[in-house]
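Ticket #4471: structure export looks truncated?
Reporter: QA, pipeline team
Priority: medium

Steps to reproduce: submit the single chain below to the structure queue and open the exported record.
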Amino acid sequence: MSPDPSPVRLHVVTGKGGTGKTTVAGALALALAADGRSVLLVETEGRQGIAQLFDTAPLPYEERRIAVARGGGEVKALAIDVEEALLDYLDMFYNLRRAGRALRKMGAIDFATAIAPGLRDVLITGKIKEAVTRRHDGRPVYDAVVVDAPPTGRITRFLGVTGEMSQLARSGPIKTQSDGVMAVLRSPQTAVHLVTILEDMPVQETADAIAELRAAQLPLGSVLVNLVTDPVLPVDRMERAAAGKLTGADLAPALAAAHLPGADGLADALAAEAVEHAQRWAAQDELRDDVEALGLPTVELPLLTGPVDLGSLFELAGRIEDHLGAEVAA
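Actual output as written to the record:
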C-alpha cells in the first residue's frame, strides 16, 4: 500500500446482524493502520463489542489504544456514550456542561433520547465528525476513522438524521453543526462499506441498503463477503453431488476396502452429507452473481476456524489490505 492509498478517511461499516460486522470493522481498522498509520475505531451501539473482540477491558468514553498494527501503526478505540456526547455538545456550543450534568442527574437526558430517538444518532454522528476533522499542528489526528455502525436496516436513517435536523434548524449552532456533519458524510472522504454473507436474506438486505444509501446521496465503498467457505470436493464432483448423483453405492467400495465397520450405512450418510454440502455451495455460488451485480468492489473473507482472536483479526486484515492495495492499483 502507498502512504496515502485513498482520499477516504471515514469508513462506515454496516451489515445485517449475524454477518460479522464488528469483526470486519476491527479487521479493517488494523488494515488501515498498517505502515505506521493511526486509526480510531468507533463503537456506536453500546454493546462493548470492540472490547470483546480485542480482548480488552470495557471501553470508557475516551480514546484508548487497543492494538498495534503491522509496521508500527496503532488502533485506538472509542465507545461513544450518548450522555457524555451531549455534555460535550452543550459545552462546545453553549458553554453549558455544568447545566448538562444537572440535567443528567435529573434523568432529563435519558428522557430526551427516549422521546426523540433521532437525537442519539445526531450526537453520535457529531462525535464521529469531530474525530475525522480534528487536527493537531495542522495535520489530522487520525489517518482514518472506522465506525462499527448500526445494521443495514437502520444505516441510512442513522447517517441521514443529522441532515433532517439541519432542515428543522434554520440558523444557529445546531444548523452549523448539522451542515458540517452532512458535509463530511456526503464527501469523498467517506465510504459506507457493507458486510454480507452468501445467504439470501443478507444479500437482499445489502442490495436494499445500497439503493437507500444511493438515494440519500451517501457515498458507497466496498461489499465485504464474510464467512466464505472453500469447497471440500473437486469442481466436477461438486457439480455431480449438487445434482444429487452421488450415492452411498459410489462410496461403499472405498469404505469397504478400508475395512470400516458398517460401511454401507456410513456410505449412505457420507453421500447425503456431501450432497447437502454441494447444494449449499452451489446456492452460495449463485449468490456471488447477485453480489457482483451490486456494482461495488468486493472482497471475500474466509470463515475462520475457532473463536475470533487477535491472530485471526490480523489474518482478515491482511485480506482487506490486499483488497485496498488492488483498488489503488486499479
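Status: closed, not a bug. The export was complete when the record was re-opened. Leaving a note from the reviewer for reference: Strands lie at 10-15, 38-43, 64-68, 74-79, 135-136, 139-140, 144-148, 190-196, 220-228, 298-302.
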